[in-house]
Amino acid sequence: MSRDLSDPTATRPLGVALLLALAVASCGDPDARAMSGMPEFCQNVLPSVEAHLAALPTPGGERYGGTAVVGGIGEIPDGMNSLVSADHGANQHQIFMNLMTLLRANGDLELEPYLARDWELNEDLTEVTFHLRDDVVWHDGEPTTAHDVEFTYLRATDPNTGFPNAAFWDHYVGGADGVEVLDEHTIRFRLTPHAELLDPWRSTAILPRHLLGDVPPDELRQHPFGTRCPVGNGPFVFQEHRQDESWSFVRNPGFPEELGGPPYLDRYVYRVIPEQTTLLTELLTETVDVYVAPLPDQTPQIEASEALELRAFPFRNYIFVGWNSRRPQLADPRVRRALTMGTDRAEIVEALFRGYGQVANAGVPPFHWAHHEGIADALPHDPDGAAALLEEAGWVDRNGDGVREDAEGNRLEVSIRFNSDRTRQEIAEIMQAQLSEIGVAVQPEVVEWATLVEQITSADARTFDGVVMGWVTEFKVDDHDLFHSTKSEQPYGWAGIGNDRLDVLLDTLQLVVDRSEALPLWHEYQELLVELQPYTYVAFPRRLAGVNRRLQGVEMDVRGEWVSVADWWIPADRR
Amino acid sequence: MTHLLRRLAGVIPLVLGIATIVFFVLSVAPGDPAALYAAPGVSPEALDQIRRNMGLDRPVHERYVLWMGDMLKGDFGVSFARGQPVRDVIFQILPNTLLLSFCAMVLAFTAGVLIGVLQAIRQNSALDGVLSVLSLFFYSMPSFWLAIMLILAFSLYARNVWGWPISFPASGMTSVDHAFMSPGAQLRDRLMHLVLPSASLALVLAGGIARYMRGSMLEVVRQDYIRTARAKGLPERTVILKHGLRNALVPVITLLGLYLPFLFSGAVFIETVFAWPGMGKLMVDAYFQRDYPVVMAGALIFAVIVILGNLIADLLYALVDPRIRYG
Predict the structure, then answer these.
(1) Range list of H helices, A437-514
(2) From A169, which residue of chain B is nearest by alpha-carbon distance?
(3) Pick from A161, A147, A179: which is nearest to A216 by CA?
(4) Contact, A468 vs A321, CB < 8 A?
(5) Which of A372, A381, A308 lies closest to A341 in space, CA to CA?
(6) Contact A459, A429 (CB under 8 A)
(7) Fewer CB within 10 Å of terminal CB in chain B, N or C?
């Protein structure tokens, strides 16, 4: 027998109950939801972190207190798991906030001790020995030891982990043969001498062996440690992660005094605000203290506000148009040079980056010790010179239609692909307009990001002519994957230029330890890039940040936005 | 009840069919989930290993069987981009969408029905004209644009320019110090954060609902039983609210079934603009990142919600119209 739903007295409670269920489900307390959904690992780990923190004294002083809120457009992918992440924001939160690296860079980009108290290299540079601090503990109270460093190294060099930056240790002896724990706080690594050989220890945060030692390497990526309950040893303790919403950290009161002591802030919150107009509003209404990487268009509003200041500092990225030299019309380096000379890159920097940046000529950024100032004017904006180069290469407008042809009548047509990024689109459109004046027909083509990546990285599908892209370099610049002839069929060998001298330079530059010896080679390398023009290097944009003036002690430079986060403080009357 | 069970039983093959189609369409779409990690210095071997760790090295039919098997056991796999079980990701995100959709829906239907009824009983008056223009104005407005305008007016200008005593938060679900507030302040904080996003969604919907409601009400007030009600001396209020409204609501309830999926998927712009961590944005991000497990789970949930939306509409028909029976 079925119930007669036509009886209103019968259906009303049902309807109301449905709506109520919906409301209750929606309005449930998120804290309770978060706890009940916690993986077992976190339920075991978090109480010990709480107990450890509760036992530590709260530091006193007028600078201590307050919450700083940083807003950015993206999540922190892979969170605090340094072994599986390659994201800039994630790396910054790992190395400056929640975790520690063995070494850190000072303002002059020289390496200095951090988790390692000091280090020594043997005479032939085949061994490096680190002496670790003995006063650093994980946030659950366990001491940080050489075994943690060994564990991180073994996992990072284990192919099963899939550590994106495994190439950091290409010149180290991978696996157990390459590392030896001498005592609880001393560890030695074996390597072959190479350039910037200590740099990996600046950028890779150490992870706790006692928590992750039993996790199979290929399961590290999905382990709850990264995004649900990271346990670090850095100045900030993980407090909470709300998916796609926020990350919260609190002060680590036990952070060693010698390293700056506990941070001034009680709490730090990173908020994910994907829409940049909204993010600017939050900054202007002072509900967000730092807006990471605002659009250049938004800088006038930030500058106009008395409560805010605009920070512009050098960064490690550059924007370029990569040329596929396998395409017949782009095979001749003279054509590629002409495309660069026909483009007014200074105007692009002025118009699209509002002057926050400078024209690039090769992939070594201006802050880098190997940057070559001498090539600054090597390829100026010179439409006449560009036209002459094209004529020399055999491209002439034979039928008077405004587009050049070669001897066989093939038109000089070049498509430039980009994803739906507005700046990249505008670069392609500006090039279309400017290059038409020298008889080159440019066709801008927008392609969805994942599809574009597949089109350019899969060697058998490389039918593109040009692509607007950006790279973020490490402090140790290595273009091997981009331009070495043996990498031409690999994912990043887009340009496909094979050049013997370039190969030699790319190989040698990674092995020369002494910077003064390497510098002439670096200069030669950059000059050769100008000649070969695998890319039209467009710009080194400066990194921007909008910062509320109530936040003191904020230093931002090429090391990142978060480099001084442990020293940020808020005056008592503005908390 | 039999009707309900029969309807629910019919859902299962439908949902499985949708899941299968989505799985195979995704598997032929260009793009590579491991491309998130692709950069110079990341070796092809490392990328291959990342793919293996994601289980992408298996042939597509094998992945399908594994996925379907796990899914039937309630395991949706692990998100490629987030490194967390999909179940956990959805568990964190879905309630946010339910909250926003529910509030927007209540607001939209309350306002829409009210405006529609007002217009119908004052047909052809100046009020009718003004409300018609207003509802068409909101109905034809893109909700993300409306959202940005609301933020600029009620958040930025209200605080920084006009100096209003009250301004609304521009984004997020709660303030950063929410956890340290008293229960009363917490509730107020949540409501304040709900105002602009739910208004952005609701205003656009309410415009449409008002148009439907006006038409439907005008149809009803011309019926004989309304004349009868008036003739027997019932107050106008009772005539309209009890006899008229209830009958006029039937076609409007159809909209509930139609709008529910819109609120879940079409709210993506609103979620983005207001930094509201919801299902729409989760799905779009997951698609662009080729985070297949999340896309699959999301597609399933959407399918279920569309079907539930229609089911709720059916139940509500019976609630307002005693002539409708399900046996």
Answers:
(1) 449-457, 480-483, 500-509
(2) B41
(3) A161
(4) yes
(5) A381
(6) no
(7) C
Q: What is the pLDDT of residue A302?
A: 97
Whether residue B222 lies within 8 A of chain A, CB to CB, comes out as: no
Q: Identify the three-state secondary structure at position A312.
A: strand
Q: What six digits make up the tokens of A573?
A: 């009357």
B83 burial (CB, 10 Å; 0-12 / 13-18 / 19+) is buried
Q: Cα–Cα distance between B303 and B312 in angstroms, integer?
A: 14
pLDDT digits (tens, 9 = 90+) for A434-488: 999 999 999 999 998 888 888 888 877 788 999 999 998 888 899 988 999 998 8
Q: How far apart are CA B220 and CA B243, in angstroms?
A: 9
Partner residues linked to A444 by β-bridges: A416
- Among the partner-chain residues B272, B282, B290, the one whose CB lies closest to the CB of A450 is B290
Nearest to A218 by CA among B79, B54, B89, B57: B54
State the smallest CA–CA distance between residue A217 and chain B in angstroms: 9
Pick the residue from chain B with its C-alpha nearest to A448.
B288
- pLDDT band of B76, cuts 50, 70, 90: confident
* CB-CB contact of B201 with B267 (8 Å): yes
By the CB < 8 Å criterion, does B233 face chain A? no
Q: Taking a C-beta distance cutoff of 8 angstroms, is the pair B28, B302 a contact?
A: no
Given the DSSP bridges, would you call strands A308-313 and A535-541 parallel, antiparallel or unpaired? unpaired
Residue B293: in which H helix or E strand, if any? helix B292-320
- Residue A182: CB atoms within 10 Å: 12
A462 token code pair: 């490389």
pLDDT value at position A172?
95
Beta bridge partners of A416: A444, A466
Cα atoms found within 13 Å of the Cα of residue A206, Cβ hemisphere only? 28
Distance between CA A88 and CA B65 in Å, rounded? 37
**A242-270 burial: b if 16+ Cβ within 10 Å, else e:** bbbbbbbbbbbbbbbeebebbbbbebbbb
Do residues A458 and A450 lie in contact, with contact meaning Cβ atoms separated by under 8 Å?
Answer: no
pLDDT of residue A5: 34
Partner-chain residue, chosen from B41, B50, B289, that has the shortest CB–CB distance to A162: B50
Whether the predicted model's global pTM rises above the 0.95 cut: no
Strand A441-446 relative to strand A413-418: parallel, antiparallel, unpaired? Answer: parallel
| Integer angstrom CA distances of residue B263 from A314, B143, B285 | 43, 11, 17
- Taking the CB of residue A484, how many other CB atoms lie within 10 A of it? 21
Residue tagged 């209020």 (tokens): B237
Rounded Cα distance, A280 and A278, in Å: 5
Radius of gyration of chain A (CA): 27
Phi, psi of A381 (to 5 degrees): -70, 110
Q: Can you tell me which residue has the tokens 């229609």?
A: B310
Contacts of B95 in chain A (CB under 8 A): 25-26, 28, 30, 33
Report which residue type is found at A240: E
Inter-residue contact A561 to A92 (CB < 8 Å): yes
CA gap A227, A298 in Å, rounded: 31
Q: What is residue A420's DSSP assignment?
A: S
CA distance B190 to chain A (A): 9
Do the Cβ atoms of A404 and A414 come closer than 8 Å? no
> For A93-96, which contacts have Cβ atoms below 8 Å and span 24 or more sequence positions?
A93/A247, A93/A270, A93/A562, A94/A205, A94/A232, A95/A202, A95/A203, A95/A205, A95/A234, A96/A234, A96/A235, A96/A560, A96/A562, A96/A563, A96/A565, A96/A566
Q: Which of A357, A393, A364, A362 is nearest to A378 (CA)?
A: A362
A103, containing H or E segment: strand A103-105
Quote the strand ranges of A306-367, DSSP E: 308-313, 317-323, 357-359
Nearest alpha carbon to residue A429 among A419, A440, A443, A439: A443
Chain A contact set for B102 (CB, 8 A):
22-23, 26
Taking CB atoms and an 8 Å cutoff, what residues of chain B touch A275? Answer: 148, 171, 272-275
Please say if the pLDDT value at position A8 is more than 80.
no
Residue B165's DSSP bridge partners are: none
What number is the average pLDDT over the span A23-43? 60
